[in-house]
Amino acid sequence: MKITSDAEVSDINKARLLLKSVTQTNPKHPHGWIAAARLEEVAGKPQVAQQLIRRGCEECPKSEDVWLEACRLASHTDAKAVIARGVKTIPNSVKLWMQAAKLEQDDVNKSRVLRKGLEHIPDSVRLWKAVVELANEEDARLLLQRAVECCPLHVELWLALARLETYENAKKVLNRAREKLSKEPAIWITAAKLEEANGNTAMVGKIIERGIRALQREGLEIDREMWMKEAEAAERAGSVATCQAIIHNTIEVGVEEEDRKRTWVADAEECKKRGSIETARAIYAHALTVFLTKKSIWLKAAQLEKSHGTRESLDALLRKAVTYIPHAEVLWLMGAKEKWLAGDVPAARAILQEAYAAIPNSEEIWLAAFKLEFENHEPERARMLLAKARERGGTERVWMKSAIVERELGNTTEERRLLDEGLKLFPSFFKLWLMLGQLEERLGNLEKAKETYELGLKHCPNCIPLWLSLAHLEEKVNGLSKARAVLTMARKKNPQNPELWLAAVRAESRHGYKKEADILMAKALQECPTSGVLWAVSIEMAPRPQQKTKSRDAYKKCGDDPHVLTAVGKIFWHDRKVDKARSWFNRAVTLAPDIGDFWALYYKFELQHGTEETQKDVLNRCVVAEPKHGEKWQAISKAVENSHQPTEFILKKVVVAMGKEENAAENGKI
To answer: 23 Cβ partners below 8 Å, 6+ apart?
Structure first.
């Protein structure tokens, strides 16, 4: 420290006088000497500091701290001599022997000093550990044999010795350790790990069980949380059988019977979060021996296998599950889907056939079997299955799927027949009305399509897609005024519906009536003030300078609405603030992974500004999310020519469609 002012000099002098008084009035107080020496060191007078600390050593020869300070202040050549005097004066000071070893340059001399220290303090665990660390394996083993004699109550030394011994000798060491430390769980756990490492997995469970009984006899309370941590530690060390045995023997300790299911599932989920997969697996395995017919636990265990196990382990688990609860549709369906994803269609088919036998009237299984055949380009099989399902009195979904098959095969007559029959049975199922209307539109029967939509609305007056389809058809055939009338009627019957307001705003915009569109948007936001989709369109409609203000208002009203997040992301994109845009798009897809439009926009952004790695990441995340909704996404994914197409194909097609739309909008402005 550099003394730079008179004030600092004055402070140093005051402190010097004070500390001189301390050392003179109480010379046997070691910290007074240490403080005085440090003051001189700070003042830049190392020789004076050394003289003071030497006097301190003379006055307080039995203080470890004074000798350590003297060693620190001494020059490198004098330090050894100082510490030698220190250990001679206080031969039982572990700190001084450790410092003496530290001053040595090579391991041989360090070890020599530490061994000398152990002659004086044979029961110092710290010195034994330090000397063992410096030794080679054979010497370490010999040292530890002596260490456990000198410090028989220190478990770490016993365990370290057991690790260095041969299998037979390690067993003897652990048995001796158990005699000395009868209340130490770590010895039993190490014994179990030893047997597992030597291939005796059958012994592992017995050792842990015996250990817990022995510890309870000794009056030790079994701490469930501590044992759970030991199980996780065993897993990390690669001792899976030991981990499983610990869980099996301790998971029930201290848990009330009515709380078992909830507690065990929570424990397993926590382990899963921490990455302790084998521990979580062991908890579920035990839980399933107690709750054999609890579907929720089988599902949780299956999810664990799906995300962290192999296809084989998942298949084995699901097979076991359906033997205990054969009426659990979801388990059969999961098993079949996994086989299908693995490319084994015959095995998936076989599982679904077993499922029919177990649950003959399950529509879910009929529809899963249909989907399997349909997606694997077996339309005749799919047709047959649906025909059987209809004979058995299938619900509206069966009729809808039947019509979809015929639509894809181009059999319009059969498609119309199925839709007509379905509507006689289920007149309030809006999807059948929509499909019939769309069929008429495809065939150019626009009047018939209009009648279909109107008839559908009599049965389903609150069905928004039917109102939107009718409005769109009227706009196409009879112009904007008719579409306006339909949308006004729709809003009267379905107040506070953002989709209907949005359709009205867009209809005005398509025909160039910007002022009318703005008025409608203002009314829409009054009626639906928290609608994210309306705020997002409102931001896009606003002039550039007002968009940021609009987006702030939207964020206040809607918070983390994905539509608003995407709209804000687009503003940052336009301003070339790439990192901010990426962050907002990422938040949107995280909050609403099922909406494909957000994924397409995010992917389009990455194609323009991202690296190959970020593009691949967005693409892979989208494929995993399997989005099904979104205005632009559904328009493409539900088109007949795109059925059976993978998510990746749809995503890229939506991006292309977005690009064309933007170009058309730009050309319109010009």
So the answer is: 29, 32, 33, 36, 52, 55, 56
